[in-house]
Amino acid sequence: MKIEFYREQDWLFSGEDGICTKIAFQDADTRSHNHNYYEFFLVGAGSATHHINDKKKIVNTGALVFIRPKDVHSFQNPSSDFCFYNLLVSRGTMDSCFSFLGTGCNAEQLMENEMPPFRQLLPAELNNLLPSFEQLSIAHELNLVRFNTLLRAAAVNLLTSYFLSYNLKLSHDIPTWLGLLALEMQKQQNYQEGLNALYRISQKSPEYLCRVFKKHLNKTPTEFINDIRIANAKLALEYTNRSILQICEEVGFDNTSHFYHLFKKDTGLSPKAFRELSSGSQY
């Protein structure tokens, strides 16, 4: 089967960081293709079969997918009401977004997985996100400079809100050193090690750290680390075939029962049930 290759210069004019378009069912690309740019697509209505990297999945209203340059995909069998927003982002622009987010965002996990990152949005989440895509499609027609700014902001928001392992919600008056510490703790070797890494990197006493974490993050250092571990465990359950025990150990838990307890407290599901549910709603 022939695979089409699309280049960003085929779609973008000079100075454009990307483009956002709303695509109806009759215009959905049925040809298998890949490209040298990035793409976010959001299904606004209806459903279609998404063929992706030799697999296929029904995407329904609220499906949000991050397509990377290596991914080969196409749409088949769209419903008559199928429509989606397609946000094309140039490779240079996306590289700038990843650079802005820094090494603590674990971008490698997004890029190395066999299948593209996927989120099934709840109706309320979809209603909140659709206006942003609509704004981008209009802004592109009116003002290129404004569009480029909005596009970069949208790409960073999509990555941090829906696809990266742990979305930090920090108060505006957080000390600089605490923000940097929080980012350092996103690194696998640090959250695996846990509190010892926190103390070593911060060079602060446990008592002082506990007070500062409660004040600015409204959680203890232990709760903060466990949140990061559980977030990464969820990603591993969704996007890898590694065993639950292996994932438990990889994220830093040496007590399986404690891992199960915290995981169910966070998600309402056991790790096994979470994986089964995810496999039914993603690639």
TrEMBL record:
Task: Give the record's keywords alphabetically.
Answer: DNA-binding, Transcription, Transcription regulation
Q: Listed GO molecular functions?
A: DNA-binding transcription factor activity; sequence-specific DNA binding
**Domain HTH araC/xylS-type: residue ranges:** 205-277
**Protein's UniProt keywords contain Transcription regulation:** yes
A Pfam family this chain is assigned to: HTH_18
Q: Which SMART domains match?
A: HTH_ARAC
Please indicate which superkingdom the organism of origin belongs to.
Bacteria
Q: Which SUPFAM superfamilies match?
A: Homeodomain-like, Regulatory protein AraC
In terms of PANTHER family, this protein maps to: ARAC-FAMILY TRANSCRIPTIONAL REGULATOR (PTHR43280), HTH-TYPE TRANSCRIPTIONAL REGULATOR EXSA (PTHR43280:SF2)
* Entry protein name: Helix-turn-helix domain-containing protein
| Organism per entry | Hungatella hathewayi
